[in-house]
What does this fold into?
Amino acid sequence: MKKVEGGLLVTKLNTEEIKDFFDAVMETLNTLVIILDPQGRIVQMNQACERISGYFLDEIKGEYFWNVFIPEEEKNTMITAYQSLLKNKKGKLEHVNVWVNRTGERRLISWNNRCYPHGNNPVQYVIGSGIDITEQKEVEEKLKLAQQDLKNTISYHQGVIFKFIKIGDQYIHTMCEGNLHDSPLIPSLIGKSLEEIIPVDKALSLNTYYDRAWNGESSVYFEYTLLNGITLLVRLRPRWEDGRVIEVIGSAIDITDQKRIERAFRESEARYRLIAEHTTDLITVLDSQGRTLYASPSHETVLGYPPSALEGTLPLDHYHPEDKPIMHQVLREIRETKKPIEMVYRFRHANGHWIYIESRGVPVFDDSGELKIIVNISRDITKRKQTENELHEAKEQLRNIFDNLDEVFFSVDVATDRFLQISSSCESIIGINHADLLKDSSLLFSVIDPEDIPGIIGKNNELQSGRTVTYEHPIYHPTDGIKWLRAKAIPVMKEGQLTRIDGIITDITEQRKTEELLRKWERVSAVGEMAAGIAHEIRNPLTTLKGFLQLLQKQTDDPKYFTLMRSELERIEMVTNEFLMLAKPQAKQYIPIDVVVLLDGIITIYNTQAIIKKIQITLETDGTSPQILGDPNQLKQLFINLLKNSLESMTKGGNIVVKVASQENNQVLIQVIDQGCGIPEELISKLGEPFYTLKEKGTGLGLMISYKIIREHQGLIQIKSHVGVGTDIHISFPLAN
It folds into this structure.
């Protein structure tokens, strides 16, 4: 580009540059352009042809185009049509034909073909411009544009070369060659002066440029518009001989289209500037180093800075310290990828607070591929960011609540059969890692009894109909053993289809145990009432038998049989009394009782017996003295029963540990741990049932009475035992307060 008088920018075009320009135009057209020789062989084609056909020019150059692109069944027709085109006086042919590309796909192309002569050759080459109308979209408009593209391309070959000399005070044109849209200027120029060709006022203006060239200025440029509206760019160059100018050679090319483009560009620039100055978005133009070249007026509204305060500065100076590396990263990525990039960062407002900015940077590169400018379109997203942060915090709060509840919340995507979310409490309740379940929901079946799986899957039919489903089933927990879960599944429907399942899983293991214990206590109560009735019926005749037995014993010299009979009657009386105790309402006085003091007294009573059996009884406390409300006699009987059972189970000696500890839930926990023979797991659930005992001469009523005492004191009992290891009994009571 060169600068000429009047401030106009013009393009210097020599023959090679014209060829390069023509090639560039050809390659940038969306239209298919193909050049053939008279025999139909491929000479040149543009990138649009390569893109549609799948062939590169180097692969098929010199091939007959019908052998490459035309289907076999249409090849002869195409050859005939091509020969007709060459013979056509007008040298033009418009037609539609099918191209077969490299992959075998057929494309329908609409062609406009033209023959171009050269010298004495009637046809030197054929230029075809085509448009892919396979999709039948905007066919006529695209074909029209294709014709105009071709016409504009050819027009760049339009130009005139002329010469003039100075005779007296006039410049006489001595030669004029070229093609300029059949302009009358060419034939009327030779042998004439400017005054004879154009109006006098315009001739005087052009004479100034002619004078400069004749006076030896190496290159003189000016623009001139013909009466038909064509604008020419004229260049004058003097030719020297023997140190003086003997003639001036001039060249003129048609720059009408270029002028129109420049005018359109100026109008477009004005429109875009109007948009930029009135939009609420931030428009910024940065140079290759990230310095601001232009800032839209909206910067003052959004950020508090007038554009003049930002232009010439680095936006980096206003970035939040944590976000400053973003600019360096953006510049590096744009240079490497040459693609637009999006970013979010914080920008300091003129008032000092931070604004969240979302920006999209579009790079513009020069002809050499170097980054020229970056156009940024940005907007204030502070409110959106605040909302996102609040939403994130709300989600975190909700998740914290979910994760700390003793329940598992879940959501399943029906289409993928995967968990969308599941609370982390699944690890403690179900025994499966939270992250693993999110990856593979089928892991849930690994803890379920295979016999229960069909029933669970069958619930899906109810969910499909939109009904909420609740079901209970056992699982095998890796560390806690058998647990019972209750699952409630809620269907989420969309347009009548099940798309998601939300639900909650609750651990009901303790509830199940409590329910079983209640059922056991109900059985105990029922048996107690029945036993009381039986005991009353037995007690009176039993008293009579004992009295007569004592009387007869005094009248005989051999009392051994009477002694045995009396012993058995006393045993019947003891069982009868225990029956009555089960059902007979006792007059209870519930007073605060120090559990540690109570247990210490009982242990003291049994220490002598324990020492004889080589058993050591130890009382361990947490340093507190918890009190419970209860009947001292009943509680004493409870712990005597438990301690007595432990002593009787330890035939080989060992240790009995009694532990007392206050719990956070206003409960006191008492543990009796022995090293006895242990109880088989399948029998533990039967303990406390009427007449069930593991002792050879036991009645089962001792534990039955113990269960009753625990229930009446609002307590709970849990028994763990392993054969050959020992038994661990947990009893909890509410604290007195």
Remarks:
- The domain at 7-155 is CATH 3.30.450.20 (Beta-Lactamase).
- The chain has six domains: 7-155, 159-259, 279-380, 388-505, 513-583, 591-734.
